[in-house]
């Protein structure tokens, strides 16, 4: 309340021997020493005002005058803050806090916690400071609010007043444990949803934007199966603010672990160039598979002779060669497991080709009569080729890669041929050498660079470089 200033003139005329006063001062006023001092007891608000004093000093004709002003205050007490409401919604509600008290000439100071509240765009302080209005409250306006009331003789403060301000939900966050995109079939997944909200938000779960049966801040999936795969999200709802917020979707992919990787071929026994086998990589279980093919330790990739199909699970070798024998392995993997097959070898028949013909371990054709000759024929062939010998176009009764002649004579000179045959490829190959046997020194020219003069009479393997 405003200060009450009641002005009245109290005329007190006294001498050193007496005091004259009005009836309202009866029993409350005394003349004190030193002369000119007046005691007023049991003060009331009506005692406020201007006091004049006349002093007549003895028999002296000149009197002394003076005046003073007396202000009476009622002590401050019973300070109480009353809000229009304590249940508010952020960005929607406004609130008025009124401060009442007993006492006179009050002044007001508002506090939010330990900070002074001053007028601003959102804060109005009116009615002499006794009313605090907060326009469009925020979560930081929760208090505690106190009203400090004071006048020149004392001060008092109200009990704290807290405002319950509802806000949110916001800053929603979805976490998945274990924190990975791919999960093994049969494992467990824990999901947790959190949001900043007052009161605490209610949580609802969605899979592929379809409402899930579970509610609450946690979702636990046990013994997950492939049909648990999908985009999971949670929605937080505040039933005070009537607001909601939905998290970004989190992708969960459930994969089946790979087991029992096996490798099969539509045919194992093959003929070089003629056949094109298909190797198939199979698994007993597993999903979202990736395939890596190995030939020995080298990766097999698609090219003009290699075809990968059916997601990489089939490998076709177009017109196989002898270098495609393997061992082949199939490495299968997904995001949660991997497995590798046992090796598979292909039996590729080829040849005969790349034939060689040596006599006594050397590439010479002229020898002395009486020498012993060991003719060896070799060829690349799988399976090993059948080898037959011929002399001057006529087959001899000798099979196998070795033909031995002992103490040869001149009439054994002539054309010797090695005939190789592969009964799997049905291919044959022939290599021929003209063998010269002489009883005297004869030098013949062998010109398969570098060129040599062969002089068998000196020694069957003696040669002079040309």
Describe, in plain words, how this protein is organized in 3D.
With about 475 residues, this protein is mainly beta. The chain is built from no helices and 44 strands. Strands 17, 19, 20, 22, 23 and 24 form a 6-stranded mixed sheet that branches. Strands 35-41-40-37-38 form a 5-stranded mixed sheet, with no helix packed on it. A 4-stranded mixed sheet has the order 2-1-5-6, with no helix packed on it. A hairpin with a 2-residue loop joins strand 37 (about 385-390) and strand 38. It is rod-shaped.
Index terms:
single chain, 466 residues, mainly beta, disordered C terminus
| Unreliable spans | 1-17, 456-466
Share of β-strand residues: over 45%
Number of helices: 0
Largest sheet: 6 strands, mixed
Structural class: mainly beta
What's the overall geometry?
rod-shaped
Mean pLDDT: 87
Instruction: Provide the gyration radius in Å.
Output: 59 Å
Helical amount: under 10%
Beta-strand segment tally: 44
Ends apart, CA distance between termini? 138 Å
Brief summary of the model shown:
This protein is mainly β and 466 residues long.
